[in-house]
Amino acid sequence: MKKVAIILSGCGVYDGSEIHEATLAMLALSKNEVEYDCFAPDKEQYHVVNHLTGEVADEKRNVLVESARISRGSISAIDKLNVSDYCGLLLPGGFGAAKNLSDFAINGDNYSVDEDVAKVIVEFHQARKPIAALCIAPVILAKVLGARVTIGNDKATADMLTGVGATHVNKEYNEVAIDEKNLIVTNPCYMLADNIYQVSLGAEAAVGAMLGLMKK
Amino acid sequence: MKKVAIILSGCGVYDGSEIHEATLAMLALSKNEVEYDCFAPDKEQYHVVNHLTGEVADEKRNVLVESARISRGSISAIDKLNVSDYCGLLLPGGFGAAKNLSDFAINGDNYSVDEDVAKVIVEFHQARKPIAALCIAPVILAKVLGARVTIGNDKATADMLTGVGATHVNKEYNEVAIDEKNLIVTNPCYMLADNIYQVSLGAEAAVGAMLGLMKK
Q1: By percentage, how much of chain A surpasses pLDDT 90?
Q2: Beta strands B148-149 and B177-179: pairing type?
Q3: Angle subtended at Cα B74 by Cα B72 and Cα B80, rounded to the nearest 5 degrees
Q4: What average pLDDT does the segment B88-98 reach?
Q5: Which of A7, A151, B13, B121 qualifies as a FRET site for B130, CA 20 to 30 Å off?
Q6: Which CATH number covers residue B152?
Q7: Domain that includes residue A112, residue range
Q8: Burial code of A134-155, b = ≥16 C-beta within 10 A, e = fewer?
Q9: Contact call for A30 and B65, based on CB within 8 A
Q10: Which residues pair with A38 in a beta bridge?
Q11: CA separation for the pair B202, B206 (Å, rounded)
């Protein structure tokens, strides 16, 4: 049975993984009879956002511990990820991708990617295994691999990606950008989707394209 | 457009709403072009569980604030719920339903239901609007309405429900128990489902049956 590794970045759109995107990516995998294991960096979150008020809370939370909420407790630290156990990698969106897995939300065009996350991405890439990223998570692949990706159609964000050597292509919520050379699949999800059903269509399209690349 | 109220109980299976069940119930509504608003009690959680270790953490979190993670910030305190704005009510599962919305997980057959939650359920019931509950959340409807429900096939739990005057019927992960007299729909979700795809089938079946009852 095929198995995909998922990198989570916390639990909640404003300071972690976007919950719907992560859940619906898991659903799309499960529907296709693909298993998955979850991973996350074992480190403190950049910050904690009160999702009711939108304000930064005076709290500390750990990315791995909070990510475990989305994966129902079944999760490992990202430095335990053995690329040979998986046939693909998937990164859901949410600000956690831009605050915990990278610092894109903080440093803009001067951004960098968490070292352990970058290492895993390079390993999947070198092993010629496909990588899918949703919503804002493609900024990570843009930086690490200089890939051809979409984050929807926001010009300011797209310009920052071309600034780090990536290629940006505009896509709608139900479309995927496929970089066949680098085996990268990206979809805008909540960057453009108006509702959760549209997000499910994006996640399904991304997972479908990723599985297609696995066959090559 | 039809609109359903969803009662959340935190964010995470061990101390709040089960994230997949809540998300997939929202997806099933959205797929059927039904809108939803989320509500939760504005009170401290019974406790906080570290979902990585399963241990109780020395922390305090608020049910409404944590529930806002699942609803992407759009949520209101349950005492603001106006039943006339909605054509149905939905309660996802997770231990939050048995720790924060009721004390079923703590007090077993001597359990009680949060007063604000019970009030809302009675109002929907009196207005002849259907109520759906997933996983362990049917225990709440069993106590408040003495309804005919399923929590799957666990005999010890089922016996506690008959003990408070409800009727229990065994159902599989993809089946719903329908109480036509009380307009109650229940499905076991993760009480029986082996994977997230099976949970999505349960949530879809429950939402479908709920919409069917709305037409009567």
Answers
A1: 98
A2: unpaired
A3: 150
A4: 98
A5: B13
A6: 3.40.50.880
A7: 3-214
A8: bbbbbbbbbbbbebbbbbbeee
A9: no
A10: A6
A11: 6
Task: Return the residue matching tokens 């010629």.
Answer: A128
Closest Cβ opposite residue B52 in set A26, A73, A196: A73
Residues B141-186: pLDDT tens digits? 999 999 999 999 999 999 999 999 999 999 999 999 999 999 999 9
Rounded Cα distance between B190 and A116, Å, is 33
Residues of A with active-site annotation: 135
Please give the share of chain B, as a percent, with pLDDT higher than 70: 99
- Name the band, by pLDDT with cuts 50, 70 and 90, for residue A216: low
Number of domains in chain A: 1
Phi and psi dihedrals of B113, rounded to 5? -110, 140
ipTM of the complex: 0.98
Judged by CB atoms closer than 8 Å, whether chains meet at A27 and B24 is answered as yes
Q: Report chain A residues whose CB lies below 8 A from the CB of B174.
A: none
Among candidate residues A197, A190, A192, A203, the one with its CA nearest the CA of residue A12: A190
